[in-house]
Amino acid sequence: MERTFCMIKPDGVSRNLTGEILVRLERKGYKVLGLKKMIISRELAEHHYGEHKGKPFFDGLVTFITSGPVVAMVLEGPGVIAELRKLMGATNPKDAVPGTIRADYATSIDENVVHGSANADDAQREIGLFFKPEELVN
Question: Is 2-135 assigned to CATH 3.40.50.300?
């Protein structure tokens, strides 16, 4: 079994898409091990997006992700990292395959509703940033 980090971003939460996205994830067969609604601090956001520091879009990413509540979660399932990324769709919703979360709900490349870890190392790092081990329930 593999674990990954997933987040419904402020635009998804403010547009009341949390339930719809959770239904999609659970129907896909993913087990939700941790789930919480939270406001991300600027410090946590800068750490989360640390690999983008110095890039022109970094400040915009941090400002957006801290602009309202998010729903952070840890998902478990076979091949969940790659499969979640397929289910989310391309970062730019114009390029997302119909039926993916971003094709169905995202309004722009900047407000694309969801985040999922890119690989196993990112998943481990991001899970550790947002959840303590005791917060995860099998």
Answer: no
- Please tell me which residue in 47, 48, 52, 115 is annotated as part of the active site: 115
Place 51 in a pLDDT band, splitting at 50, 70 and 90: confident
Q: pTM for the full model?
A: 0.95
Contact 82, 30 (CB under 8 A): no
114 neighbors 51 (Cβ within 8 angstroms): no
The DSSP line for 17-48 is -HHHHHHHHHHTT-EEEEEEEE---HHHHHHH
Task: Spell out the domain ranges in the chain.
Answer: 2-135
Looking up tokens 């593999």 gives 2
Indicate if 47 belongs to the active site: no
Enter the tokens of residue 60. Answer: 């915009």
Query: Does residue 2 contact residue 77 with C-beta atoms inside 8 Å?
Result: yes
